[in-house]
Amino acid sequence: MLTNSRDIIRRLEKEGWRLVRSKGSHRQFKHPTKAGRVTVPHPKRDMPPKTALSIYESAGWPKD
After folding, report:
1. What global pTM score does this model have?
2. Of 16, 18, 36, nearest to 27 (Cα)?
3. Which end of the chain is more exposed for a tag (fewer CB within 10 A), N or C?
4. Collapsing DSSP states into helix, strand and coil, what is residue 64?
């Protein structure tokens, strides 16, 4: 499971998620066909596992 925010953002953008809002240390991404948004704290090298798990669930990714 990725826990580096830069790697997570790269994967989101590769899968079609687009940055829609940036405020403070958080970035929000929206997908053109999937429902909801994904919020990623950035920059964050080693985020807590539960935070990464929440991002995975919001993006619809399987737990690695």
Report:
1. 0.91
2. 18
3. C
4. coil
